[in-house]
Amino acid sequence: MQRGNSVFSRLEVKKYILKKNLKRDLPASIVVFLVALPLCLGIALASGAPLFAGLITGVIGGIVVASISGSQLSVSGPAAGLTAIVLGAITTLGNYETFLLAVVLAGVIQLILGILKGGMIGNYFPSSVIEGMLAAIGLTLILKQLPHALGVDSDFFGDESFVQGDNENTFSAISNAFSHFGVAAIVISALSIAVLIIWPKFKKLSVIPAPLLVVVLGVALALAFSGTEYALAQSHMVEIPVVNGIGEFFSLFTLPDFSQITNSKVWVVAGTIAVVASLETLLSIEAIDKIDPIKRVSPTNRELVAQGAGNIVSGLVGGLPMTSVIVRSSANVNSGGRTKMSAIFHGTWLLLSLLFIPGLINMIPLACLAAILLVTGYKLTRIALFKHMYHKGWDQFIPFVITIVAVLLTDLLKGVAIGMLFSIFYLLRTNMRNPFFYKVQEEGDKKHIRIKLAEEVSFLNKASIQVLLTNIPKETNVIIDGTNSRYIDPDVLETIFNYKHNAYTKGIIVSLENIQQQYIVPKLNNKAIEEINN
């Protein structure tokens, strides 16, 4: 009886937690759905793929990937960072069906990477670079959405690259938008931003998500402006394919061409997609964990498995390659999402909107959706973040700023790579400065120097140790103490032993204390390794 009561109690607790989180996840899923909808369409358009491909990728990213993933807040879908690769791959491979085969194979590769614990790479992204990437995404959202908020939609919705496909760049596009703005779009975006800021302050009314209210307001204002000289053109509205019935819906699916399995170009494209998509996903997962209010840690290997499964399914039904996407995920966090149910619901809303209300969805102005992303971008680029990173010291602040500038002037992966280089430079400098400490004692005319090595002495410490030993004056007694050292790199050991052997020529007497001839890298037990990998 007690056992039964215990099980009943656990079930009740689970139901309570689910119900409690549902109050947050359901409204958040609507916000993510509204953000994801134009992004899916814009990325598909820029990739040279059917619009349906972008939407079905969002559906799969929401339902399939989120169900398998261990991340509670990540939202997956077609990524802006893959548009150039997809566009080039479709052209190179000759047709869309062959490209879909590459997407399926990319998913298989990701699946294998996850099984082989390739997600551990995510543990090596420096915090300063991840923080810089988040701030850069926020600034990118603000800069890229300004033209849409002003009613100029020449660039695809969701573009993140500095150089745009319409022969503009981020800054020239803003300048051009101020010269060709639309009054209706400005009114809609300005009122939308006001609602997004003011509405959440009324707690009793916040049951209705502010972004949902913004969309209703945007549709109403667009209808009010229709028939006037300020009316919005259809190009300034969301445009999803209108599906008349289940039969027509299934006719939109495209199958991959498996006869091209031996085509080497397919495998090159698949490998490229797998590597780029995996890196973007791992970066996104690290970033989302940082802004998670509960500070949960997502299992990176499981995420690669989930992404692999998602890309396999996407390729089989005619979708695009996908990643975990920072913009959607951060919108999820900022809207109060708590569990993966938010991402799953968002995928469901995408599917239902395509099947049942495409006409209504096509009445939504892009200006009000741009307003949602502008506010999301502001929350990611808060001034407090810059102050926080500044107070952490120059070795953190400089890579942080460099990452921001590099992402803004290139794209996500290139910018992060540049930020990583600067972070590695500061890491090397820090390691070179902290391999040991030493104490000088004088007895008459004879100096005694004790050099105490650190707990871990790596190859990176070799140069600084060599400099110290070379500058020790003649006629000195030197004690090199390895008592605290759990590991000393073989190259450093060779440097120490060679110095001991040759020091007598300068009248230097070298004594070694607790320094072994060889050190074995400490191994983690299986349980610890499993915890790190998962």
Automatic annotation (TrEMBL):
Q: What's this protein's name? A: SulP family inorganic anion transporter
Query: What's the short name of a Pfam family annotated to this entry?
Result: Sulfate_transp
Q: Does the keyword Transmembrane helix apply?
A: yes
Q: Which domain of life is it from?
A: Bacteria
**Which InterPro entries does the UniProt record give?**
SLC26A/SulP_dom, SLC26A/SulP_fam
Q: What is its main location?
A: membrane
The chain positions of domain SLC26A/SulP transporter read 22-391
Membrane-traversing stretches:
26-45, 51-68, 75-93, 99-116, 123-143, 177-199, 206-225, 267-288, 308-327, 348-377, 397-428
User: Which species?
Assistant: Pedobacter psychroterrae
Localization per record? Membrane
Kindly state which keywords UniProt assigns to this record, in alphabetical order: Membrane, Transmembrane, Transmembrane helix
Membrane topology type, per the record? Multi-pass membrane protein
GO CC list: membrane
Its GO biological process terms?
transmembrane transport
